[in-house]
Design goal:
Length: 377
């Protein structure tokens, strides 16, 4: 059976498409709510924007920004001594709030959170992620195996709608978990007010000076987990010694020393680093999406992605970015980093592509699904 048969490719990203007057009661369920990235940022943006027109509540174990929000917050008890403990105990805490949840016609869970949601956004397929990892401990592999088993049971029982953040995840849900129903693909979005090429004039010269990088030198940026990319980044830095590489990561392992590499801790001002860069490199071995890809594109950067990132689906290779198998990634990227004129041209087109995926368009697409669920019930 062709797994793509039941996957919708209509991204529905048209702001205003769901400008309907019906006010809904919406519950958003997520382990943690914050604006630092991933599914937590996705949920917070949904909560902030949807609460302008609907009654919205967030059910989470940890929550930032609830004090001055238009939406309500309900605390879900869970153990926090490990990721596995959180995944296993969060559904128990959610069960104790079943009576409160039942008041909401839309119950939207972010992946496996327990309960009986009528819509779920799949931000990852844990089974596929686990199998993409090679050098991890037995303990971490065992933990991921248990999480994948719980996730599979959840999706096999789920009777509601499913959103996947990429075609990659949609296919993985069908192949790994046997999801039989239709899967809507609605990618993550980007804040184009924060990430745009206009930042180059604001930040580029100052940050390059702080980093000690001349304007004439090609600066390639990487942001993310080194577990999934360090081997290819190290090869690329050696293959392109004339370029400089800035790596922004929370990873404590896989660091190395090289005269053309700087490894820096996470920052809340990523827009400054995109502005200082000439290209964005992303040789990930697995990313269900990869918000940084879309942020880099919105910032006017050509992205050199592996074909293992969900966000790579948004790139038209050779037109507004580059997508390559990992076996070809180092050689192809090293050669193209030397073509400054083409980097700039690709970057301009990348920004135009990214603008189609601003967060209001994504929220509108999700809201449209809510309306369909509410009216069909």
């Amino acid at each position: 059976m062709n797994a793509a048969a039941n996957i919708s490719t209509d991204l529905r990203l048209s702001p205003g498409a769901s400008a309907q007057p019906r006010r809904m009661k919406i519950a958003l369920v997520v382990h943690d709510l914050h604006d630092h990235g991933g599914h937590s940022l996705y949920t917070k943006i949904l909560a902030d924007q949807l609460s302008r027109h609907h009654e919205v509540a967030v059910f989470a174990n940890r929550c930032e920004g609830a004090a001055d929000a238009r939406w309500q917050y309900h605390h879900v008890r869970a153990w926090r001594n490990s990721s596995l403990a959180t995944v296993q105990t969060f559904p128990l805490g959610l069960r104790s709030l079943a009576n409160v949840l039942s008041n909401y016609e839309i119950q939207h869970a972010q992946g496996y959170c327990g309960g009986e949601p009528n819509i779920v956004t799949a931000h990852i397929c844990v089974a596929a992620y686990r199998d993409s990892l090679q050098a991890i401990s037995r303990r971490n592999r065992a933990s991921l195996k248990l999480m994948a088993a719980a996730e599979e049971r959840f999706y096999r029982r789920h009777q509601g709608r499913v959103i996947a953040v990429s075609q990659k995840v949609a296919h993985e849900l069908k192949e790994r978990y046997g999801v039989n129903g239709s899967v809507e693909v609605i990618p993550h979005g980007v804040d184009i007010a924060r990430f745009n090429s206009g930042n180059r004039e604001r930040y580029r010269e100052e940050l390059r000076r702080q980093l000690g990088i001349d304007e004439q030198v090609t600066l390639a940026l990487y942001v993310g987990d080194l577990t999934k990319s360090h081997a290819y980044l190290k090869e690329l830095a050696a293959a392109a010694p004339e370029a400089r590489f800035v790596i922004v990561t929370a990873s404590q392992a896989y660091h190395w020393s090289s005269p053309n590499v700087q490894i820096l801790p996470p920052t809340s001002e990523l827009q400054r680093y995109y502005a200082a860069a000439d290209a964005f490199v992303f040789p990930t071995t697995y990313d269900a999406f990869g918000m940084v890809v879309l942020e880099a594109m919105a910032s006017g950067l050509p992205v050199f992605s592996s074909d293992q990132a969900g966000a790579a689906e948004l790139i038209d290779p050779g037109e507004d970015g580059f997508v390559m198998p990992l076996r070809e990634w180092v050689e192809e990227t090293a050669g193209r980093l030397r073509d400054h004129a083409r980097l700039q041209d690709i970057g301009r087109r990348a920004e135009q592509t990214a603008r189609r995926y601003d967060w209001p368009a994504v929220v509108s697409a999700v809201e449209q699904l809510y309306f369909e669920i509410a009216t069909s019930g």
